[in-house]
Amino acid sequence: MDEKPLICIPGHRLCLLDKTHVNGNGTYERHGYIYSNLTGVVKIITKNGVNIVEVHSIGEQTLIPTQGDVVTAQINIVTQQFCKCLIKCIGEVVLNRPYRGILRKEDVRATEKDRIEMYKCFRPGDIILARVLPITESHTYQLSTAENELGVVIAHSEAGHSMVPISWTEMQCPKTLIKQSRKVAKIVPENYNPNNND
Question: How many folded domains does the chain comprise?
Fold first, then answer.
């Protein structure tokens, strides 16, 4: 008798994570369980006595941000308490449609949280790297930039030029030399070589 394929949706708990079951493509692990990251069909691939649980998507891409993911987002609105943004990528995957994200003042930095001024950290149009926090509201993903590698990666000056980071807290327009405050992400370029004198 043919078994019907098991269809799941994002966030669907599939099984326990143990010595015989591990998570594969299209799934993630949380609190000792394997969950689906996609809408699709559950496949179990057995290799060396271990069952790899995978989810293969049906039709168009349905990847959604999950807790712990690093996402790329564009800032839309900045207030004294939070920034609203649109999540454009999860890791290196560009999304078919953006998701709404919110970055609260207390999640901007790991230290000196009470001294944070949102407008000195982000401006509308900035592109940021952020980590997804546990979901508390439906339809909005809470984000954090409270790690050195997270924060603003692309920003434009008022003159319209791409700014260059000059410290953890400032970026500068290469043409006008005007400086602006930002929560700058510490990015190590892929081709960075400390021994290269170029």
Answer: 2
The answer to whether 100 and 84 are in contact (CB under 8 A) is yes
CA 123 to chain centre: 18
Domain CATH code at residue 38: 2.40.50.100
Q: How far apart are the first and last CA of the chain?
A: 66
Residues 6+ apart with CB under 8 A from 18: none
Query: DSSP code of 106?
Result: G
Task: Give the 3-state secondary structure of residue 96.
Answer: strand
Question: What average pLDDT does range 42-46 have in this prediction?
Answer: 90
Structural domain boundaries, residue 125: 70-181
191 within domain boundaries:
no
Q: What is the pLDDT of residues 57-96, one digit of tens each?
A: 765 555 788 888 999 999 999 999 999 999 999 988 888 8
Residue 36 and residue 75 share a domain = no
What 3-state class would DSSP assign to 115? Answer: helix
In a domain, 63, yes or no: no
Q: Regarding beta strands 170-172 and 164-165, do their DSSP bridges make them parallel or antiparallel, or are they unpaired?
A: antiparallel
